[in-house]
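Researcher: I'm preparing a figure for a lab meeting and need a structural model of a single chain. I don't have an experimental structure, so a prediction will have to do for now. The sequence is pasted below. Please return the structure as tokens so I can convert it later.
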Amino acid sequence: MVFIRSYSPFQGEITIPNTVFTMESKLKSIILVEDNLADVKLTEYALKSLAERPQLIHFFEGPEMLQYLSEANLEEIAIVIIDLNMPKMSGIELLKIFQADPKLSNMPVLVFSSSDDPSDLQNCYDHGASAYVVKPLGLEELEKTMRYIVDFWCQTNALPHSFRDRPFNIKEANIPC
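Model: Understood. Here is the structure written out token by token.
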């Protein structure tokens, strides 16, 4: 069974129900860190168009995602997709944490941003981004982009086995929250 889970910083304000797809999948999960609910819903919709889709685990903010990673089996995650411009912790700040941590530095991180500014792109790669994708404007293009992401990162790409050695320790990461 494939699940989409959302984690919200809104304590008691807005609750987004979990979405459950009844489809077996051998694909590793995708983590999405995106503060814009419309973009989250469009990504979910684009993934629904795939014959085989991974579990999508969504977080509105970076610190909650990092807490999740400290408890998760990192071998079950194919890629972390992050928005560049988020209010609590920017995509660059997240990239710096991934880059500095010996455990997370092997995790593929794709920046998915509306910005096509060459300096944003360069800054992300300078801080360890595995890929940078400008968010497509139309639904058909988004579906195609998500298909490419899933095909490569969830099916083709091979990750090192270093995730088994030791878990990510959020306390050691010195994360400003």
